[in-house]
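Backbone Fold Data
Goal — fold tokens
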Amino acid sequence: MGKTAFIFPGQGSQTVGMMKEFYDNYSVVRDIFKSADEALGFSITDMCFNGPEDQLRLTFNTQPAILTASVAAAEVLKEHGIVPDVAAGHSLGEYSALVIAGALSFSDAVRIVRKRGQFMQEAVPVGEGSMAAVMGMNDSNDIVAICKKVEAETGREVQAVNFNCPGQVVIAGAAAAVDKAVEELKAVGAKRAVLLPVSAPFHSSLMYPASVRLAEEFKTITFNDAKIPVVANVTAEEVTKAADIENLLVKQAASPVLWENSVNYMINNGVDCFVEVGPGKVLSGFNKKIAKELTSLNVEDNASLEKTLAYFKEVR
């Protein structure tokens, strides 16, 4: 019998109404949302369930909202006796993974990710940075090379920042440099290269000021050794020691997300079942492109929970 990994989504997976079914049916979920409201000093619960969507989409609201929703979904699984052998999360999702692993308290994490959203937004003025998804390039090294070429020509930052799955890499940086890179990538064979509706160039070197501010903020909270391994975005390797977790989180804001490598690391270490815990199925989609033979489940509402529970009852 192989291992089970919980994987947690990042920004972009939020929807108004997420986790409402679980909130209505599980007291542990109501407790999580209440704890989030108390830690933040306003009702993220109301924003998650009622919007408005434009407020939920703001980075400093999105990040604590998705974290709360994801941790709540993990607690529902725990109530049904399903716990992971290893955890990982895409960007913001890494904080959810660390909460489940016992490395961060939920109340600390929800306050920190709100600050993280604020710091990342403030690192680059709105409109000066952008991101683009590049699809259909066979070799991600070609994307890295084009970005370096454009950086040299323009003197502006543009980098490959999310290595999501075969055929999908996200680039980010100064808006003009991203635009130029998009044109050059299309010219050398990218099937699609589209600008993303985001407000900052996340995970690029332009986020370094956010990393510095996060490092200061981390001094106000306690990191613990993780009870289960967490595969870090920055290294695509497992981490358990508190000091290493803190150092990698500082780097994470301004470093690429090595998601494809992270999933392959988990597969090579015996994981054969991935459960995407929280809103959406973005990571499940990536996983199918990384390794078709994987079992990819998700838990975001009653229907997806029932399907996941049925799998574990039958197979495990």
